[in-house]
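User: I'm putting together notes for a lab meeting next week and I want to include a structural view of one of the chains we've been expressing. I don't have a solved structure, so I'd like a prediction I can at least talk through. The sequence is below, exactly as it appears in our construct file.
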Amino acid sequence: MLTSKLKEQLKSGHKLAQKTDHVFVFLEILAHEGGIQSYVKDIFRAYGSLNTGHKAKVLVLRDSPEDIHPLECENLKFYSYKAQSPHVGRVKMVAALLKCLLQERPQQVFCGHINLAVLIQSLCQPLGIPYTVLTYGKEVWEPLKKRERDALICASKIWTISRYSRDRACAANGLDPNMVEMLPCAIDGDKFIPGPKQPELVEKYGLTDAKVLMTVARLWSGDIYKGVDVTIRALPQIAEVFPQVKYLVIGRGDDQPRLAQLAQDLGVSERVVFAGFVPTEQLIAHYRLADAYIMPSQEGFGIVYLEAMACGVPVLSGDDDGSADPLQDGKLGWRVPHRDPKAVAAACGEILTGNDQRCDGQWLRKQAIAIFGLDTLQQRLQALL
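Assistant: Thanks for the context. Below is the predicted structure for the 385-residue chain, given as structure tokens.
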């Protein structure tokens, strides 16, 4: 026979078990700025707006508490495990996660990076708790180590951001495409809006009367796939038709000296403006400077294309990557071979001429928001949950 006290303890324990529906585990969310970080923040904003009654805990290894707490809301609680010693931080996070799994038995655990997948599998599988792995792009495009691949195969679901990323990850790692669900990036149409070019920025960058091409990208030597060098190589050909063309490059990194030297060697250094790092809150004003957003890249998705389109700026991407989704297979923009300067130059000529519907900023913005707005993200997230 159970005593009344024990019955009350079990009853309290049952209440505790219902407390947390979902647990998200991430390496970082805000430690760096980038497309993936923006995407993850949008997921949490969407989750926070759900009216399903779900509650979640978010465990983050590398972000500091003051960084992540602003994301908290009634149904999202964040926990940081950043420490001077990465090993100590990881041990603390694992202990907290295990305690949560044992005491609260969440419905689902969401693994925010492939580098955490083996850990999540080892904790969830013995307890019979299903887990989902979030994937984005190149981190899963090549064959993974056996344990990481097994962790993906054993997941209840895999989320990814584009058809290309799904197909490439499945081909490289023998995954069943049917277990992969799509949760594309989104755009805040109330934040990214068209507007006039700010005179002070035009003057700052020397863009008076210029036809402005723009790219937002990390200028890291390991990220040359972004295609900044290809666009620089295309400038001489573009300038033959549009002598007032300039190329505004926003971003920083160790590859900038090489890119600057390339521009000098090609005789277009006066046309290339390296703006350096621009904070997110100032990025919208910079998009408005552009007559075209040019990034012949290889992206998992490419949220910057959505940002540009929402600001009414026509876009160019590579033709063999996840940008097929935001550009809707070319319906919303130009797609060219990503390492072909001649193809980039020809497409830039069409964009700057402005005779194509894809140059209609109002139409472009309407299409982008209808397909990839935050409301759509919230609906997709609710369906997946």
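A couple of points you could mention at the meeting. The mean pLDDT is 93. The CA atoms of residues 38 and 227 lie 21 Å apart.

User: Perfect, that's what I needed.
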